[in-house]
Amino acid sequence: MEKLDMSTKFSINKVIDIEENPFDRQKRIPGWNQEKLKNAHVFVIGAGAIGNETLKNLALLGIGNIHIADFDTISTSNLSRTVLFRKADKGKKKAKVAAMRTKELALEEDVSIDYFHGDVVWELGTGIFRSMDLVLGCLDNVETRFAVNRRCWLANTPWIDAGIYELGGHVTVYVPPEAPCYQCGATKEQLAAARRRYSCDDFKRSVFEEGKMPTVQVTSSIISAIQVQEAVKFLCGQKVESGKKIYFQGRVNDFDILTLNKSDNCYGHATYPEIIPLPLSNSMSLRKFLEFVSKDELSGAGATLDFRSDRTFVQSVSCKSCGTEIELNKPSFRIFDTETICKNCITKGGDRSDVSRSEQVSPKRTVLEFNLTQTAENLLNMSLLQLGVPYRHVVTVYDSKHNYKYYELSLDNPFIQI
Fold first, then answer.
1. 183 near 149, Cβ under 8 Å?
2. CA-CA distance, 409 to 376, in Å (whole number)?
3. Structural domains in the chain plus CATH codes
4. For the residues 226-244, what does the mean pLDDT come to?
5. Structural Rg of the chain based on CA atoms
């Protein structure tokens, strides 16, 4: 038998101090994959009560790429329910402040955080959602939930919806293309709520009563924790239940899990057959866009941009008081109901906001399809953004034989890096 050389000295080349790794304890959980969390792109929509808690949790967990969107500003009533906001932040953009504070909290050394201040419903296109691994809805209104749901299904991107009311709340995971989707179970009341900020003409109401949700920070903390836990399970490749609503009622400390039903008549979970990225932006003119997609290898001569299932471009409306034609040349979501009364009638007092007049439908001239041969010059010279095409949108184009293709404007990036 060979003898061991006992004179050889034992040496330690490297000591790893686990206390210097902020993620050591969570990495000990079976099935945990910190590398996947570091590389994940997570889109948080809504930076209010739930959004604040969710962003805090993502930052401390080591999510490497966090994207934030909100159109609102910080008010006094937000302060008791938002861990990221301070008294001095009143009047500032929620998305920007939330991004800054999330960056301060983040434990991942090279974390990437950016934000978008604007209307997610109309200003962010399907391509944005395609670039995400997961979308977290921290919303307080049905209209935006419908829009996020539709975008996620078109983009084939999973999303997790969270909502709160008083001492209760709910969390639901949706994984396209597996239905049901959020809209499958929509009630008549929810469909009506999604239309609350629009008049009968599909124009924005200049005055409408916005509902205020009764809730408390404790509830948002609980619901956010469930939402983020489901997010981590999904990102780490663990099993999550799609189409199951986790419902918590704090008054009686009761949890229920409800199975949602698929609706075969629901258009909310429609998907694109194929999306073709193009090196284009919504800042380009309609003319240049049509010239580009008219190439033989794309849609060819006769290529037509189709708005029919997406948005409405309004050239003019008839004055509700006198019938005079009012030129607008805007997408309908940028038009307010007050713009449907001409200047002469306003001068004469015709802009009074009686219910009967505000609910009248204004006759209007719209353009739903655009091509190089039949579209007016003034419209061809407008940018896609002016026409109402959101950032990084997937636009619908058909060729001379009505064969459809779906193109992503892949050069758009509306987010601001922190």
1. yes
2. 23
3. 18-259 (3.40.50.720), 276-417 (no CATH)
4. 96
5. 25
How many Cα atoms are found within 13 Å in the side-chain-facing hemisphere of 153? 20
Token pair 């007092």: residue: 349
Helix (H, G, I), strand (E, B) or coil at 45: strand
Structure tokens given for 175 = 């994984």
* High-pLDDT (> 70) share of the chain, %: 91
- Between CA 56 and CA 105 the distance in angstroms is 7
312, 271, 277, 311: which is closest to 292 by C-alpha? 277
The pTM score is 0.90
The answer to whether 236 and 36 have CB atoms below 8 angstroms apart is yes
Q: What angle do CA 203, 206, 207 make, to 5 degrees?
A: 125
DSSP string across 270-339: ---S--EEES--TTSBHHHHHHHHTSTTTT-TT-EEE-TTT--EEEEEE-TTT--EEEEEEEGGG-BGGG
Distances (CA, A) of 238 to 58, 64, 127, 302, 412: 17, 19, 26, 48, 33
